[in-house]
Amino acid sequence: MYDLSCAGVTKKFGPFTAVSDVSLNIPSGSFFSILGPSGCGKTTLMRMIAGFETPSSGDIRIKGESVLSIPPNRRNVKMVFQNLALFPMMSVGENIAYGLRCRGDVRSEIAGKVARVLDRVSMPGVEDKQIDQLSGGQKQRIAIARCMVLEPDVLLLDEPLGALDLKLREHMKIELKQLQHRFATTFLYITHDQSEALVMSDQVAVMNAGRFEQIGTPKELYRGPVSGFVAGFVGDATCLPGTITDIRGQQARVALDSGGQVIGCLCDESGTGDAVEVFLRPEAMQICSGNDDTTLRGRVDSLLFNGANSRVLMRMGSGQIIEVAETAQADPLTEGAQIAVSWRPEQARIFARRAE
Amino acid sequence: MGRDAGRLSLILLFTPFALWIGLLIVLPQLGIGYVSLREKVGVNQYEFGFGNYADFFGEPIYRNTLLRTAWMSILVTILALIIGFPIAYYIAKLARARIRAALFLMCLIPLWVSDLVRAYGWIVLLRETGVVSTVLVGAGLITEPVEMLYNDVTVVIGLVYTVILFMIVPLVSTLQGMDDALLEAGYNLGGSRFTVFRRIVVPYAMPGIVAGCIITFMLAAGSYLTPILLGGKNSSWFTEQIYNQFITRYNWEAGATFGVLLLVFTSLVVWVGLRLTGQSLVTTVARKD
Amino acid sequence: MQVSGNLLWIYRVYVLIFFLYLVAPLCAAGVFAFNDSLFPSLPWRGFTLDWFFSPSEPKLGLFHDDRLLRGIGNSLFIGVIVATIATALGTCNAFLFVRKTFRFKPLLYVMMVVPLVIPGVILGISILVFASMIANFFDSTLGLFVTWLRPGIPLIVLGQCSFLTTITSLVIAARLQKFDISLEEAALNLGASRPRVLLTVTFPFLFPALFSAFVVAFLVSFENFNTTLMLVGSDAPLTITMYDRMVKVGSTPVLNAVSVVLMLGSGLLALASVVAQRPQSAQ
After folding, report:
1. Least confident of A151-155, A196-200, B113-117, B190-194
2. What DSSP designation does C134 have?
3. What are the chain C neighbours of B215 within 8 Å (beta carbons)?
4. DSSP helix, strand, coil percent of chain B (3-state; round to 5)
5. What interhelical angle do C203-222 and C253-277 show, nearest 10?
6. What is the pLDDT of residue C282?
């Protein structure tokens, strides 16, 4: 059974449609992310699931039952807010106990439950501390503990890692994944950071302007994007605009706006003469010549060192820059050197041009 | 969070507000307007008309008292602004943080003590047998004790004292909100001290200045104790007239008329002032800060 | 504004003179309460507490002067009632203007602030007149004699509430604006009912402002004169009693003693309200 499903959920604010016909099904115990840029509607969708907004149309079901008529303080989905919303006038223990007391749990059991959940988030014994005595990462864990102690059906997380610095964020990504396994609860996570979504999730939905563009596993999104937006948003890619001149089966020939012709794999319904974009991932290209149709030439513009993510930037005659992953070279490259990059045709993806 | 619950709570919250404003402010003001239009023609017999107002304008002493109250209040307001602005600026900008809190607190102290105590203090200081007079005689600067009360200058000094804090407090909060970087940019672009003051500080602080002026003017015009205690028989302040009509002579119609006139006249002065400086009630009073 | 060295010192002297000007009358009023003389004036005849505690003429101390003590009692009574009503109304108004949207909101906000600008005397006479009109109406049509609509303590309470509510509303609204609404949503999400959210999350945050508003309203009520003057009946608060004494009998140092008590009391309460409003680490 699905812990959480949305069927055709739409939300309009006057003439503006924030969320448009969104459907999703999240299996029990999985980590599901909604990935999208600011303003794409993901926060609105989450607030509808939590009950702070009402959908204009569509249904939201938790464990099979529709929750539209249930007010936000009686739904069994608990939310970790973007700014954590820990109550500053209460201690850590009182924060965590808040939901238990609202529920009417027996006083004598509350202390025990609080202690147990603190153990599970690896922060035992901090019940009496004040909120402002905690660090960013510790506050995160307390916010999660406050929700998990109530054993919710689904835990909603609204961009919780935004306020943390880089090293802590990387650490928390792994922690969150481990917490999710430990509690075996369904997590619904929204973010604009694709690395968070890819690293932690079992499934990701890419959202743009109120719609889901694609739902799939991180690998499916990375290797098989279904639209230009997904191809450009998930992972790095160089994007070459052009026009289709010829289609043969799955392959299409594109006349690049910057000159030259390339062959790539046509991934949507575009036809001859349509304006398209060709997407090339840095690691899909090699720094050597290949067939004319799958080769581009230029000069080395700069060499960017970033450990395993090092890049070579090649500037073509037209001025466009192509990013190529730097692999071990027989001859080390220097700036200004003439090089060529090539790829296998099925690794270049062609989509209809995105609206600006 | 149903829509109905939201409407219900709006009605619940609006009712006390509406009752308070309606029953304690709006209706009573209309009430005095109503009474001011009533003329007593016999025992418990009333006619309506502007007779009371005609009486007012016909009697020079009443007219002159109102005018005197108004122009002296304007004078007090201007003095309060001139004296108070440097103080407010010092507190907001030049004092260090801890001193600033202490100074601000000291500014508030006279506010917390009654008008009565303040006026009484001035009497103790300035009357013929008071401190200043005795000290001056003792120091040999004058030969006889001098009566410093019961003249206009003292009334003005006393009124400025009463209202100046209501000028300083809005100015301090407005000036505190001013980013120092604005001033530094002004100097950096070549402004002299005077230019920066005239073209950056004053326009920025204008809503605070106007708010302060409105409050001090209305306070001065509506003041009762200070003009009477410090001015004595010569004080002729308009609020005293209102009190006389109501309590001493029990002539409520005339008293109400005077009240309405005071309100209308001072509102007129405030309105003219707002127009002259290009502000409106919304920009000065309804700012959410 | 850059101020050069010398100018800064002149500035400082000016500020100093200003604060001396501020304190001078208060010192004068206060100091002579301790002067062992029949008049609040120089020369200084020695330090005494007689004007506070002496039980007999000619130096009747404050704490034995029945009329003055009754005045203090009335003022305290009125102050507490007015502060309570004004704080309650102020809380409603704060929530109304900070949380809700409705038509004519800017206009109504200005109306809320207007009572501060209306001269106290006018507020007094308007309520006097209005209450009389209602009382006369009851009297003539229903034969009911409604005493509390005649000058007296109930009218004083109403008169003071009319403008004190504005002050409390502004104080509480200022604090409420700083409240992070996601705290309430988090509480709802954790299962709290709406009343419980208000009680456990919102009001603890608001409490310093509620306390401050109460204290400020009490203080302003205690020392109010203009409005009270028009509405006073047979039970007079302290300020009216003191004024009567001053005008009819002349000033004796017992009035200075009253001043000292007023200053001390106001000072302590005001300090309490400022301390309560200071941003504490946990709030």
Report:
1. B190-194
2. H
3. 116-117
4. 80, 5, 20
5. 170
6. 38
Q: Report pLDDT for B289.
A: 35
Whether residue B119 lies inside any domain: the answer is yes
Amino acid (one-letter) located at B266 = T
Q: Which chains are adjacent to chain B, needing at least 3 Cβ pairs under 8 Å?
A: A, C
Say if the Cβ atoms of A87 and C187 lie within 8 Å: yes
Distance separating alpha carbons of residues A213 and A228, to the nearest angstrom: 10
Cβ-contact A256, A230 below 8 angstroms: no
The reply to whether C32 touches chain B by the CB within 8 Å rule is yes
Closest CB from C8, C14, C262 relative to B114:
C262
For residues C214 and C85, give the distance between their C-alpha atoms in angstroms, rounded to a whole number: 9
Q: Give domain status of residue B207, yes or no.
A: yes
- Residue B4 domain-assigned (yes or no): no
Rounded CA gap, B83 and A347, in Å? 78
Domain spans in chain A, listed from the N-terminal domain onward: 2-229, 236-352
Average pLDDT over chain C, rounded to an integer: 85
Q: Is residue C129 part of a domain?
A: yes
What is the percent of chain A with per-residue pLDDT over 70, rounded to a whole number? Answer: 99
Token look-up 């008169």 returns C159
Chain C: residue whose CA lies nearest to A101: C192
CA distances from B152 to B233, B240, B243 (A): 11, 15, 21
Q: Do A85 and C194 touch (CB under 8 A)?
A: no
Q: Has residue B27 been placed in a domain? A: no
CATH number for B77: 1.10.3720.10
Closest Cα in chain A, distance from residue B132 (Å): 54
> Into how many domains does chain B fold?
1
* Per-residue CA distances from B141 to B129, B154, C23, C245, C247 (Å): 16, 20, 24, 34, 31
Task: Please report the pLDDT score of residue C204 as a whole number.
Answer: 92
Does this complex have an ipTM over 0.85? Answer: no
In this prediction, residue A329 carries a pLDDT of 61
Query: A272-289 b/e with 16+ CB inside 10 Å = b?
Result: eebebbbbbbbebbbbee
**Strand order from edge to edge, sheet including A65-66:** A16-27, A2-13, A57-62, A65-66
- Is the domain A2-229 a CATH 2.60.120.10 member? no
Residues 6 or more apart in contact with residue A129 via CB below 8 angstroms:
A91, A92
Q: Do A78 and C190 touch (CB under 8 A)?
A: yes
- Give me the residue from A73, A81, A88 closest to C182, CB to CB: A81
Name the CATH superfamily, with its identifier, for domain A236-352.
Nucleic acid-binding proteins (2.40.50.140)
For residues A189-204, average pLDDT: 91
* Range of the structural domain that residue C157 is part of: 65-250
Tell me the mean pLDDT in the region A235-252.
88
Q: Which among A114, A136, A137 has a CA at the least distance from the CA of A126?
A: A114
For the segment C205-231, what is each residue's pLDDT rounded down to a tens digit?
Answer: 999 899 989 998 998 898 899 999 989
- Say how many domains are in chain C: 1
A70: nearest CA partner in chain B = B1
* Tokens, residue C202: 């919102």
Q: Where in the sequence is the domain holding B109, given as residue range(s)?
A: 59-284
Interface of C with B in 123-152 (CB under 8 A): 123, 125-130, 132-133
Q: Which one of C117, C170, C223, C268 makes the best mutation probe of the B interface by having the most chain B beta carbons within 10 Å? A: C117
Residue bearing the bigger pLDDT, A318 or C175: C175
The residue of chain C nearest to residue B261, with distances taken between CA atoms, is C122
d(CA B38, CA B256): 10
